[in-house]
Each structure stands twice: as C-alpha cells, then as structure tokens.
Design goal:
The chain is of the alpha/beta class. The chain is built from 7 helices and 7 strands.
Amino acid sequence: MSSGVQVDLQGRQALVTGGARGLGAAISRRLAGAGASVLVADVRRDLAEELCEDLARQGGKAEFVALDVRDSAAVADVFRELDEDGGRVDLLVNNAAVDVCKSIEHLTAEEVSRVITTNLLGPMFLCLETYRRMVARGGGHIVNILSTAANRTWTEAGPYAAGKSGLRAFTHTLFQEAQRDCPGIGVTGIIAGGMATPFILDRFPDADLTMLQSPDIVADTVLYALSVPDTSAVSELVVVPRKEPSWP
C-alpha cells in the first residue's frame, strides 16, 4: 500500500466507486495506505470483500458498500445510513465507469443509457449527496476520474466520450462553486490515459502493454491532489503514458 506521494489521511473516510478492481482497487490501496478508512463501493461483492480483507491484513481499514451508481435512490440510501450511524465521506473518488465499443450505427438505446448513466449521471448523483454535506461541514475533497476521451475522442467511443466530456464540464462547474461556497472543499478532475487494467484488457486482450501505464501511477496522482494544502487548489491533472495515442 506504499506510495511515493506522502499525505496523512488518518481520521478521514473515503468512498471509492468501482473500488473493487483495476484503478479503483489501486486508489483504495493508496488511500488505505495513507491512513484513510475506505468504503469500497461496487457491484462486485466478492472482489470488493477480498480487497477489504487484504487491506485489513496490511493494517488498513476498508469496508464493502454494495452500490450501483446508476441508482440515485441507492446512492441517497448510502449517505442516509452514514448520517444515521454518525459517519461521513471526507473524500469521494468517482471512478466507476463502463464502455461499449461499437460504432454509433450499431449502438442500442440500452447501451447508450448504461454508459451515460454509469459514467456521467452516477458521479453526479454521488456529488449531489456529498457536496452539500461537505459544505455543511466546511471541508472535504471530491476527485472525479476523467479520461483523454473528455478532450479528444475516437471511433467506437461515442457514449464514453460524451459521458466523460460531460463529467469534465460538471467537475469544472463544481470546482468554481466550491471556490465560491466553501474554500475548504477541493474538487479535482483527473484525466487518465490508458492503463493496464481489466477495463482495457478485458475488451482488448491483445493490447500492447508498452502503450499503457500502471494504475498505481494514477492512484498516486489522486494522492497528490489530496496532498495540496488548503492555500492552493488543483482543479485538473493529466497523467498519460509516454506513448499515449489519444493525447492531446
């Protein structure tokens, strides 16, 4: 769980969506290693509970939260239960995402809805519940995981690019409102390039690994955003492999 980025998150609670595997798991490990108590929010119970057990063996604190980010009522229930238990979310990382690699000609309405709801509406639902509570407490940090597709798209990526572009715009707006409403709240969008994670390798098993970066690098970027003192603000960071073909 060690990282080259040093930040003390003792006493803080983080919620990571899509936290059971890939980048989400890497972020969960980094946050736990920095002392945070991590809520691993995912639809994959087995993988999430296995990760939580592993983090506990290493001295970390982690708990599985069953959550489909597409369900706004389920998102609200998670925060209601935290409120009732005296808990809170100090750090929110919106990482959960899906993709459908099809040309627009062959996409179905259900596929488009699934991608947009997961990648755009889901993070917005989480932000709505988290932000108002952070304003009331006077602090916190929200990190939205973006993509190079938020800046430049490619074929067979219509819904994915639309969702990530929308999330980037929403993140910029949230950053501006936090600057106005509560300077103690940090809002950061992280544009991440291709990573050696199941998100890519399950769809493209023949992908050239030399073109991809480790998810640990992106997880370290999350830690960096959280390490900046309150006197500064990090609105957006870009971390891509040297050979990233989709940037700039």
